[in-house]
Each structure stands twice: as C-alpha cells, then as structure tokens.
Give the backbone structure.
Amino acid sequence: QVQLVESGGRLVQAGGSLRLSCAASGGTFSRYVMGWFRQAPGKEREFVAAISRSGGNTDYADSVKGRFTISRDNAKNTVDLQMNSLKPEDTGVYYCAAKLKPYALLSRHGYDLWGQGTQVTVSS
C-alpha cells in the first residue's frame, strides 16, 4: 500500500525560505504524477504545484509562481517543495498528493492519495 509522509513544516518569518519534503513508500514512485496542495484556516484546500512522472514538466499556482519550486528524486522516492520569499498568506497545512492511475496526466485535479500534511506558519 502506497503511503506519503510530509516533513519540513515549521514557523518561519516573512521573506524566509523553507523546504518541504514528501517521502513515498509501498509503490512505484516513478509512475506517479505528484502534487503539493495547501489549506489555510477556514479555507478550502488549494493546488500549489505539480510535477510529471519524469520531473520534466511542472505546473504552479499563480500565487506561488516564481517563488516555489517543485522537484522530485525518483531514486529516493521523494518530492520536494522549495519555498522562497514566503508571505503570511502562504500559511497553512501543506499536503503531498499522488495520482496512482497509470499514465495519468499532469494536472491540478484527480489526485488519489494524500499525506497527513505538515504545518507551515509564516509570521509577519
């Protein structure tokens, strides 16, 4: 059974940087499109970034474009989210997600498996 475990969330000052990591186990990681989502208090979960199976293609929400970078290491079964120039509005629980269906396309929807989340708090 595939499992996703996020790490790296913490309290950081505005303008700072943070790197989140998601470790996958129990499946063939290189077959999965991976994504990062976040949920702020009182708001719905929203898409942040996604990366194709090979890592050659990425997609970002407009709100994080130019500040966040998603990457993956298929040898280590990990997907990371490098977050720079953090803003208070980046605060929330960050979730790693995977599309388990074979040949799934890179997109912002249709994710089958979710991690438990890691809290990111950006203070002003």
